[in-house]
Amino acid sequence: MAGIGNDRPLLLIAAGGTGGHMFPAQALAEAMIARGWRVKLSTDARGARYAGGFPREVRIEQVTSATFARGGALAKALVPLRIAAGGIGALIGQLRDRPAVVVGFGGYPSIPALVAATVLRRPRMIHEQNGVLGRVNQIFAPRVDAVACGTWPTALPDGVSGLHTGNPVRAAVLERAGAGYIPPGDYPMSLLVIGGSQGARILSDVVPDAVASLPEAIRSQLRVAHQARAEDAARVAQAYEGAGIPAEVETFFADIPRRLSEAQLVISRSGASSVADISVIGRPAILIPYAAATADHQTANARGLVDGQAAILIPEKQLDAASLSVHIASVLCQPDAAQRMARNALGLGRADATDRLVELVESLAERARP
Prior knowledge:
Blueprint: E1 10-14, H1 19-34, E2 38-43, H2 45-49, E3 59-62, H3 73-77, H4 79-96, E4 101-104, H5 111-120, E5 124-128, H6 135-140, E6 146-149, E7 163-164, H7 171-174, E8 189-194, H8 201-212, H9 216-219, E9 222-227, H10 230-242, E10 247-250, H11 256-262, E11 265-268, H12 272-281, E12 285-287, H13 297-307, E13 311-313, H14 321-332, H15 335-348, H16 353-368
């Protein structure tokens, strides 16, 4: 049902204040606006700061929310009251302007909108980016009409079925989707090392020594692009220079999609977005999950590529320069195997993830029409 005085359907998106939640929410918002829908974003003050990339047509509504993960005893004691207040506000808002569909992307700020939608029995779904449901999505998975999974397989509660939509990727990644892969050989090769925003130090500690230990036939042809923390960048650059290996060491690469498309091998953490980018472009990878990730979800994220013989998994506790060097060589010394890994990764990618989410939203809206 459209809002009062407006016959265009309304999509209400609810998301927490991290890039992992907000990016797929933004991708869906852009697509639904292009299809003539109205879109509102329900988030808290922190989430609103991450919403600058949303289309200007999206109305941002801040709700009262809180998390048990931060603050002292008093702040944590007030969390239920703050969430309840947000839920009441969301309920009033949805009565005034009834959404055709409500989609939650995780995070505590998505609770009020999903609670209100549950009370009002509005069509509702959640999207989980990782291979393990976040805390909020765990609560709502049995209470929504559809569970869209960005990573496959995703561990779900008993009795809950998921649909593998994939994780939406940036337009710059889509432009490189399925880019031709040049297998390793006796010519210049590219190694891309991306650590994500958390826990990248171990890659800075281990990867340069592993590369320096490679056989001369590989090392002499290799160039490296290594994303490192600011406090580690100088020593990482010095390590590569000391080993005579051409390397670009930066705290941030703005052109990751290009670098992915040109790489013969990627060494990466297995955050949901990184895994999606690697699979959509289609590149062999060595994945080192962040050991401190909640519920070990980065290991779950890597499972699809590893089981699909597109990536090698090294648990962080087992990572050392010697073993990593062996794995790097196993890919770069076997061009046919590397080509198969790239092809397998591409086969597991979901370049149409946003389209799949759009179809799911529209199907829920259609089923709810009288």
